[in-house]
Amino acid sequence: MSMKDKVAVITGAASGIGKGIAEAFVRAGAKVAVADLNAEAAAAAAKALDATGQRVIGVGMDVTSEAQVDAGMEKIAATLGGIDVLVSNAGVQIVAPLDDFDFAQWKKLLAVHLDGAFLCTRAALRHMYAQKRGGSIIYMGSVHSKEASVLKAPYVTAKHGLIGLAKVVAKEGAAHGVRANVICPGFVRTPLVEKQIPEQAKELGISEAAVIKNVMLKQTVDGEFTTIEDVAQATLFFASFESNALTGQSLVVSHGWFMQ
Ligand code: NAD
């Protein structure tokens, strides 16, 4: 799958899944902006991929900040030559039972996942429409875009919401050759998930091994974690698929957890 000289912005790309997507896109020939709240880590991740700074740049960007997103996208387009692909991937997880869920934490999670996706989408679309060379927007959903789990009310709400956003972008973007799709991974062992294992063990009163076996991987066909590379390849597939035949869709990448 070739992404030769396409410019891809990947949010939350200083860690985990986003970092793996950045690596896969660079291997496929893309120019990449590693955008992340953690500016230092973004710069380091970019430098590791391209020491010259000509094809990969790190950009400090809080996706919940309208000013930072608009300025960051301007800088990326000016430095790398436009924007062809947005992978809206930045995310956080906060777990608690609903009757005990702190309102500020609820709003924080929705802001990162939904405000972040909206702001990055709007900025990317403005560049894509003006460039007149189409584009592809990929949202990092989750099996939780389709399915619920206890303790994850705002996450499940936000991840379901991304599918709605992608469908609207697919409809509005079609006239401009812009496609939008959602990837829905199962559990991937990233810092976001490592943090949840002891938290869930405590909330549910079970061992960490039981959280992995009986909660996270229980409904897979083979008891295995999805890998960062699995998700990166699926993202590359959407990004490099060049017709409107594939738009407004969501793809579950999860070892069979949730079959539609
Ligand atoms: P991670 O914690 O390893 O990486 C998330 C990155 O997002 C971090 O670098 C962090 O600094 C960045 N980030 C957080 N808030 C931000 C903000 N406001 N602005 C910009 N960047 C911000 O997590 P991950 O597991 O790689 O998750 C990436 C995405 O994949 C998330 O949207 C997550 O919900 C989704 N996802 C993860 C899994 C999984 O099992 N790991 C499964 C399904 C979906």
In short:
With 260 residues, the protein is an alpha/beta fold. Helices cover 48% and strands 15% of the residues.
Q: What is the subunit arrangement here?
A: single chain
| Number of helical stretches of at least 4 residues | 8
Task: Name the shape in a single word.
Answer: globular
Taking strands numbered 1, 2, ... along the chain, how are they ordered across the largest sheet? 3-2-1-4-5-6-7
CATH topology (fold) name: Rossmann fold
Query: From the 3D coordinates, which CATH architecture would you assign?
Result: 3-Layer(aba) Sandwich
The Cα radius of gyration reads: 18 Å
Ligand inventory reads: nicotinamide-adenine-dinucleotide
Q: How many distinct domains?
A: 1
Unreliable sequence segments: none
Which features does this protein show?
260 residues; Rossmann fold; seven-stranded parallel sheet; alpha/beta; 48% helix; 8 helices; 15% strand; 7 strands; binds nicotinamide-adenine-dinucleotide
Describe the structure.
By secondary structure, this protein is α/β, with parallel strands linked by helices. The protein has one domain (7-186, 227-253): NAD(P)-binding Rossmann-like Domain (Rossmann fold). Helices cover 48% and strands 15% of the residues. A 7-stranded parallel beta sheet has the order 3-2-1-4-5-6-7, with helices on both faces. Helix 1 crosses helix 8 (228-240), helix 3 runs parallel beside helix 4 and helix 6 (191-204) crosses helix 7 (208-216). The longest helix is centred in the middle third of the chain and has 29 residues, at 103-131. The relative contact order is 0.14. The model has no long low-confidence stretch (mean pLDDT 97). The chain binds nicotinamide-adenine-dinucleotide (NAD). Nicotinamide-adenine-dinucleotide is lined by residues 11-12, 14-18, 36-38, 61-64, 89-92, 112, 116, 140, 142, 185, 187-188, 190-193.
